[in-house]
C-alpha cells in the first residue's frame, strides 16, 4: 500500500465491538479525533488519518472466556512518522501495547519507508561468497564456555572448532569487554587460530565477535574489532534497539556481516495475548534493520519455538518479494547432528546449522563434533538416512554422535 | 550483596525440579559448566560462578495445570559483565527469556554496578525546584492532537493548557520530526506560549519536547532542543533501549529533566508467564538509567495496570534505600479530576497528575480543564470531599468536571 505502513494486531476480548475498536485505534493513534472535526479540517487532516483495512473476528462457537479474538489490520500514513524503526514501533504499538490483550502479529512497511533502509549488507548470498560455500547449508559453532577463560583457552577452543570444518564461529553473547579476553586481543587470537586451522582444512572461516559497550561506542567498537581483523560481528539487537543495528548495517566503514542474537526475544514473542510475534521481531524487523544472519530458537532442540512460528521467521528472512537482501536463518539451541535431516527438511540448504553443546559435547571431542555435523549435512543433502551414512568408512564422527544423541529422520 | 547482581524469576512448570533448574541457570548463564570441571579449575572459576540464593516453590494444593511455579533468585557476579544495562539484561535474561514460562520479576543491582550510573540528574526534588512547587502534587497535561497541526495550532493549544495552571506540558509521544512542527521551531513556539501564559498565571512551566531520530543523533538533538529553549525532554525509552536513556542522563551538556514514556511497555509486563514485570521495567531500570519522571499506566483510568503492580512501580521509583535520586511517578491515561482523591490516597503528594482528555475534554474548555484539576488537588490535599469543594465559589471548573465525569472518592 503506497504511503502507508500496515500493522496487524490480534486482540482478545469476550465482548468488544471489534469494528469500533479498530476505528478507535486508527483514529486514536494518528489524528486523535475525527468525527467531531469540522468538514474543512477533515479535508486537511485526511492524509494523516489511519485506515482500518480489515477486522477478522474469530467468534468461538461456544464462547469460552478468553478465546474470542479479532485480527485487526490498520494502515498508518507514512507522513505521520520519521523513517526509522523506533518511530514506526512507537506509532503502531507504543500506547496500544498497554491497552488490554493485544499482540502485534504482522507489519508490512511501505516501499517508501523501506527505501530508508539498506538492509543486510551481505545477506545470505554475500555470506556464502565470503566463505566460498554455495552448495550446502553452512555450519556454525559456539564457544562452549568463555567467561573466566583467558586468550590461550579461547585460542585452543577456537582452533579445535575450526578443525572440525565449521564455516563460522560465534562468541557467546554473554561475553562482554573484560580484562582476560578484551575485544581486539580476542579478535587477533581467534583469527590467528582460524588461519592456523585453514592450513589443515583449507576453509575460510568467519568469526562473529560479540559487539558490546555503550550505545554511542558501538560503531567505533565495531571498527576497532575490524581493524584487529574481525570478519563478522555478533550483536544483541534487542538489548540496544533495532535502530542501533540499523546504524551499524548502514555504516559503510563497517563492512562485515552482522549476526543478530535473539537475547531477550522471549520477553516479547511467546505469549498469545501480549507482545510482538516472532516473525515480526526476529524476522521482518531484523532484516529491515540489516541483520545478515539471524539466530532464533529452533523447534527441534532444548529452547523451543513452535514449528509454525519458526517457519514464519524463516519466511520473513527469505521472502523474495522484499527488495532487501535476505538474512541467513540460524535456528539454534539444542542442535545435534541427528537433527540435521529435520533442519534440511524445513529450511532446505538456506540455513546455517548452529550448535554449541552438539559440537563440544561430542564423545570424541570438539573437532569430531564439527566433523559429525559436516558428515550429517552431506548425508542429508544426498537423501541418505543418517544411520546408513554413519556406518560408512570416514564417518566415524557421525556414528559416535548418533550413538550419543540418536537421530530424528525427517 | 557485594559484587553480585541478583535477579528473581517466576518460573511456571507443572513438574520441574525447580532446585535443579535454579542450579542450571546459575551455572549455564555464567561459567557454562561446573560439576565436570577439575578441582584446580573450579578454584579459578569460582568467582565467575552464579549462585542460587533461594528457590521458593508455590505448590498448589490441588494441582491445576499451569499454576505451579517457583520464584528463583540467582546472584550473578559483577565480574562477568560490563557496567551497562544491555550487558546486565543479556546476562540475566538474554537466553533465559526464551526458555519456557519464565518472567523476570525483580532485579537488585550491586552497589558497585549502581556506582556506574549517575541516575536522574534532577529527580523529584530537582523537578519541584525547577517549577517552584513543593507543597502539592504537580499537574501535567498532554497535547490533545498534534499530528497534522501547524505551529499556530500548537501554540494555541499550549497557551490554553498553560493558562489552566499546569506545571508541565508534554508532547504526544507519536510526534516525530516533521515539516509542520520541526523540533526547534516547536520548542521556540511552545516556550513563547509558556512565557505569555506566565504573565497571567505567574507559573513556571516545563515543556517536555519529544526527543526522536536516529540513535546516534539523540544527544545532539537534545542539545539542539535545549539551545532552542527546551527545559525538559520526553523520551520513548523502550524503543531505543535503556542505555540510550543512560547516555542522555549522563551527558552533562543535557541538563534538563527527562520524562520517560512507557511506549511499548505493554509488550513486556502484562503476561504473568513471560516478559519483565512493571516494577523492573518502568521502575528500577528507568530510575537506574536516569529518568527524572516516569510515565506508566494508572490503575484508575482507561489503560489499566493492576493496583499492586502500580504501587510496585511507585515504590521502585521512590525507594529511599537506593542512593540515586528518586524519579517522579506519573500514573497516566484516562485521568479526570474526579480521580484525584484516589491518586493522592495511593501516591500522597509525590506524584504528577497527568491528563490529556481530562484537560482538553472539559465541558468549559482546555483552560477550565487545568483549573478543575488544580481545584481537585487543593480539595483533596485539604481532605475535603470533591463534591463539597465543587459547590464553593471559584470552583466552577471542578463542578463542571464532576458533572461530566463523576467522582471516585478515596
From TrEMBL, chains A, B:
UniProt entry keywords in alphabetical sequence: Amino-acid biosynthesis, Isomerase, Magnesium, Metal-binding, Methionine biosynthesis
Tell me one GO molecular function of this protein. Answer: 2,3-diketo-5-methylthiopentyl-1-phosphate enolase activity
- A single GO BP annotation from the record? carbon fixation
Instruction: Keyword check for Isomerase, yes or no.
Output: yes
Q: Please, which domain of life does this record's source organism belong to?
A: Bacteria
Which Pfam families does its entry note? RuBisCO_large, RuBisCO_large_N
Stretches assigned to the Ribulose bisphosphate carboxylase large subunit ferrodoxin-like N-terminal domain: 7-109
* Class of the enzyme per the UniProt entry, highest EC level: isomerase
Q: Where is the Ribulose bisphosphate carboxylase large subunit C-terminal domain?
A: 124-405
Enzyme nomenclature, EC number: 5.3.2.5
Q: InterPro entries, from UniProt?
A: Diketo-Methiopentyl-P_enolase (IPR017717), RuBisCO (IPR033966), RuBisCO_lsu_C (IPR000685), RuBisCO_lsu_C_sf (IPR036376), RuBisCO_lsu_fd_N (IPR017443), RuBisCO_lsu_N_sf (IPR036422)
- Sequence similarity: Belongs to the RuBisCO large chain family.
Question: PANTHER family given for it?
Answer: RIBULOSE BISPHOSPHATE CARBOXYLASE, RIBULOSE BISPHOSPHATE CARBOXYLASE LARGE CHAIN
Which NCBIfam families does the record associate with it?
PRK09549.1, salvage_mtnW
Know the name of this protein? Answer: 2,3-diketo-5-methylthiopentyl-1-phosphate enolase
According to its UniProt entry, this protein's organism is Paenibacillus cellulosilyticus
Amino acid at each position: 500500500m503506497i504511503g502507508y505502513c500496515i500493522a496487524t494486531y490480534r486482540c482478545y476480548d469476550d465482548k468488544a465491538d471489534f469494528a469500533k475498536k479498530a476505528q478507535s485505534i486508527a483514529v486514536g493513534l494518528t489524528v486523535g479525533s475525527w468525527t467531531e472535526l469540522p468538514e474543512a479540517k477533515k479535508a486537511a487532516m485526511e492524509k494523516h488519518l489511519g485506515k482500518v483495512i480489515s477486522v477478522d473476528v474469530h467468534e468461538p462457537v461456544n464462547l469460552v472466556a478468553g478465546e474470542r479474538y479479532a485480527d485487526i489490520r490498520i494502515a498508518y500514513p507514512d507522513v505521520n512518522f520519521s523513517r526509522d524503526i523506533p518511530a514506526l514501533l512507537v506509532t503502531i504499538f507504543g500506547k496500544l501495547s498497554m491497552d488490554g490483550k493485544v499482540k502485534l502479529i504482522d507489519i508490512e512497511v511501505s516501499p517508501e519507508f523501506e527505501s530508508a533502509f539498506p538492509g543486510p549488507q551481505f545477506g545470505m548470498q554475500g555470506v556464502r561468497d565470503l566463505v566460498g560455500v554455495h552448495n550446502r547449508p553452512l555450519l556454525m559453532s559456539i564457544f562452549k564456555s568463555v567467561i573466566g577463560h583467558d586468550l590461550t583457552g579461547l585460542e585452543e577452543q577456537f582452533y579445535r572448532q575450526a578443525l572440525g570444518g565449521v564455516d563460522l564461529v560465534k562468541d557467546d553473547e554473554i561475553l562482554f569487554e573484560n580484562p582476560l579476553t578484551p575485544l581486539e586481543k580476542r579478535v587477533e587470537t581467534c583469527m590467528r587460530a582460524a588461519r592456523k586451522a585453514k592450513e589443515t582444512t583449507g576453509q575460510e572461516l568467519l568469526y562473529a565477535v560479540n559487539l558490546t559497550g555503550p550505545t554511542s561506542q558501538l560503531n567505533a567498537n565495531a571498527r576497532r574489532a575490524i581493524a584487529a581483523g574481525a570478519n563478522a560481528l555478533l550483536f544483541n539487537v534487542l538489548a540496544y534497539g533495532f535502530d542501533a543495528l540499523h546504524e551499524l548495517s548502514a555504516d559503510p566503514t563497517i563492512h562485515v556481516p552482522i549476526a543478530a542474537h535473539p537475547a531477550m526475544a522471549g520477553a516479547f514473542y511467546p505469549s498469545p495475548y501480549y507482545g510482538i510475534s516472532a516473525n515480526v521481531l526476529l524476522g521482518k524487523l531484523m532484516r529491515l534493520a540489516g541483520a545478515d544472519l539471524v539466530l532464533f530458537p529452533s523447534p527441534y532442540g532444548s529452547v523451543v519455538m513452535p514449528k509454525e512460528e519458526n517457519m514464519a521467521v524463516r519466511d520473513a528472512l527469505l521472502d523474495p518479494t522484499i527488495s532487501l537482501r535476505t538474512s541467513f536463518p540460524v535456528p539454534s539451541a539444542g542442535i545435534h547432528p541427528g537433527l540435521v535431516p529435520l533442519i534440511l527438511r524445513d529450511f532446505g540448504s538456506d540455513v546455517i546449522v548452529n550448535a554449541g553443546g552438539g559440537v563440544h559435547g561430542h564423545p570424541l571431542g570438539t573437532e569430531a563434533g564439527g566433523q559429525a555435523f559436516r558428515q550429517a549435512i552431506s548425508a542429508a543433502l544426498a537423501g541418505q538416512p543418517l544411520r546408513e551414512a554413519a556406518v560408512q568408512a570416514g564417518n566415524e564422527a557421525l556414528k559416535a554422535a548418533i550413538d550419543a544423541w540418536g537421530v530424528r529422520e525427517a
